[in-house]
Amino acid sequence: MTIELPDEAATQRLGEDIAAVIRAGDVLALQGDLGSGKSTLARALIRALADEPDLDVPSPTFTLVQTYGTTPAIAHFDLYRLGHPEELGELGLGEDAQEGAALVEWPERAEGTLPPGTVTLSLSEYGEGRIAALSGEGSFRDRIERSLLARRFLDASGWERATRRRLTADASARTYDVVRKAGREPVLLMNSLPLVLGPVIRDGKAYAEIAHSSRTVHAFVAVDEALAQAGIRVPEIVAQDVANGFLLLEILGSEGILDADGQPIPERYEAAGALLAKIHERDWSPEIHAKAGFTYTIPPYDRDALLIETELLLDWFIPWRDGKPASAELRAAFKAEWNRLITRLEATEQSLVLRDHQSPNTFWLADRQGSDRIALIDFQDALIGPAAYDVASIATDPRVTISEELEAQVVAAYEKARNGSPRFDPESFREACAICAAQRHTKILGIFVRLKLRDGKDGYIAHLPRIRDYLRRALRHPALTDLRALYQREGILS
């Protein structure tokens, strides 16, 4: 694959495009003669990772290696003065490539000792500029090609010569970059690859099919339009390429519902709860006819989806905790009890379920009033299901410690906004809220362990004590007496 670089700025943008997708374990070998642009590209890549356009990035010609505490950490090697390939071990290339990423100039001096999966970028003069040739195999190569496709989307959407800076990744497979161009407000680039379904686990279906996870960016586009039409503040879609999974989104601001120390702001949580009342008072058609010319059908939050989510606890949490699979007896008792509770949920009010209504996915708009001060950014997995689900989600935010007092305030704010509605039954709602909270945090115990074991995201394990506490609260409800006994017997709450 070749990339034309007509000027130095284009070489710098290529560095930014690679910075947007480089991960720990990646090695980029930079080949080319003196003056071919290797250092220009390396400098741009490191500055993009650091988000410091003026960062001093000296050439490691004499030191051979220079390291940077970016995310991921990166080591910049210059092997021009390397005496022998065996010296690479002394320089720590293998260790650096495991703990972070590595850029290697003059890789030919390594004589085939670079690790598997290394991607090589060869730079050479081409007319008034340069040309870069990309070679290699593996996920890093695939990510670079995807990033270059994103750059073409930006260029075609009127954002040519824009800069990109990636945001911290969330728990999903999507990635986000902040895109800036002189004279324009910055926008957010969403890069959403089609969902990989994974192995078949039941009835010829993969987990994502049973759980009704969104497979393409079409879901985000359709639900964004539907929410906007209902008067809910969501990001404006500035440009879209739904076929390839790219969106340019309005940035709604920087204020969330947590304070500077990461603690919940009660007024904002109450507004986030009250916003749900506005959503639940509306009739939602499952079919959305998007402006882009496609029709999207919002899936149901049905029994199979609710049940397969709870079983994440059996599939991931229990084996991780016990060192062995969940027993057949536990699975049978677990499934029987959850089937009973799901039957009760099916009899409660049904509405649009955002499915992930929590602090990272909400913004605070101080210039508005009431629940309109809350903006939403994450809803592509929305379903039609129990209205109480999102109330339970925000009232017991999995990433933030919500006191019982604040939980009650959020629920009360929602109930006050629903007061007098003929479709709202407080007693039924309270029971549904408890069941949904128990379902959600049962699921999250499994998800957070899966993120550690499958995806290498260790930080989520720190949230498990809080999730157990939320479960204990939910299981106090009389409708959950039998589930509480099962969880206590199996040690899930301790």
From TrEMBL:
Question: Which residue ranges does the record assign to the Aminoglycoside phosphotransferase domain?
Answer: 165-424
Localization of this protein = Cytoplasm
Q: Which UniProt keywords apply?
A: ATP-binding, Cytoplasm, Magnesium, Metal-binding, Nucleotide-binding, tRNA processing
| Family note | Belongs to the TsaE family.
| DNA damage in keyword set | no
UniProt xrefs under SUPFAM superfamilies: P-loop containing nucleoside triphosphate hydrolases, Protein kinase-like (PK-like)
Q: Does the keyword tRNA processing apply?
A: yes
Q: What is its main location?
A: cytoplasm
Task: State the protein's name.
Answer: tRNA threonylcarbamoyladenosine biosynthesis protein TsaE
Q: Which InterPro entries match?
A: Aminoglycoside_PTrfase, Bifunc_ATPase/PTrfase, Kinase-like_dom_sf, P-loop_NTPase, T6A_TsaE
